[in-house]
Give the backbone structure.
Amino acid sequence: MTSNRSKNGTGMIEFRGVNKWFGTLNVLKDITLSVEPREVVVVCGPSGSGKSTLIRCINGLETIRDGDLVVDGQRLGDPATNMTRLRTEIGFVFQSFNLYPHKTALENVTLAPIHVRKIPRTEAEKAGRELLAKVGLADKVNAYPAQLSGGQQQRVAIARCLGMRPKIMLFDEPTSALDPEMISEVLDVMVAVAEEGMTMMVVTHEMGFARKVAQRVVFMDAGAIVESGTPDEFFSHPKTDRSRAFLSKILRH
Amino acid sequence: MLENFSFRTIVEYLPLFGQGLVTTVWLSVLSFAGALAVGIVLAAMNLQRGRLFRIPAKAYIDAVRATPLLAQLYFLYFGLPRLGIILPELVVGILALSLNSGAYVAEIIRAGILSIPRGQVEAGVASGMTYVQRMRLVILPQAFKVTIPPLLGQAIVLVKDSALLSLIAVAELTRAGQLLASDRFMPAEGFITIAAFYLLLYYGLKGLAALSERRLGLAGART
């Protein structure tokens, strides 16, 4: 039995020989990957390569079949690990934002801090206003999601995660559902979060973002990690045929 | 034909109709409250993953929807005393309407909850909410808004169904019409008057539905 603490003690997120199946489809194949505290890792790869599934396993939105996944020193699936509690340390930004449509921007940000973290309402609202100002939405505090553009909604979603003061932020294609002119406003916020030292895993094809803040790019194909390296190495000198083929497709334009 | 129509008799019987109307209203309110309680429990059972709760809930809902309300009413009215349970007619009536309408309410609530996109559940899960917190803070407030119009529709059906209680001698609106019909041999006067009162109740509930839909407009808007 593996101990509940991380063996080498340094990785904030550690995959060791992780496998996952959807029915007979092996969607994650023998994944081994360690993300250090304050590290920013970009995950890319063709559609269906398992990159979203990979980060969804980290907060237990998906469960793994075998192997070990240790997050913040706690092994997932271990009876001693309180998953609900661990999730409060992990922010997750969805491709489709998933804001609560019946709550204002501020209420979206304060809901979990008040009810899950048990922070007093006035304090949570003060912090919430500051966070919304930080993502450039000080004037949209009382707006409902339906009144906001996609880019604005995604910035609220990022503020909603930050409101929990997480140790880790996961981003699942955060700009894929956005109109092109809104992508940079979201990426700017993500860069700011990264520069504050957040541990981040970001599924994205935004090369500019990767070059600017990522320490590492992980390339996945057919459920396996095919290549991993610094953004410069990966984008300038991809080592495998599959990564070259993928890059030629996304860089063509 | 109209010269035979006795408005005077209707006016004379108005206090009786008034009492019948009041009885219909409050027994409908009580029955609908009962139906909501039954419906919430059934919907919760039906949404569980385990079969232990789901199968009895589904069986109950099917049984109620497959059989006539009149048969259910007679079953309770004549059946319960055979089992040694003797209740006043009014209580049997409210019980029958609650149990019957509850099955339909359960399906409305279940559909409302299932209509909330999966991403809403995931957002709650990802922020560390428990099942109960997710339901209370995220899912139910949204499902509630989707559910109000069909629930008011079900309330309208319940009000009309309550006419069947006249058959077990509950002094509600239809019973008042029957009395006028049999006492004075004036079925046209009796039943047209109750029809007018039912129409009144119908428009009242419809107005309420329209009002609630307008009130819930903005905040309920989908992204």
Notes: Chain B touches chain A through 23 residues (CB under 8 Å).
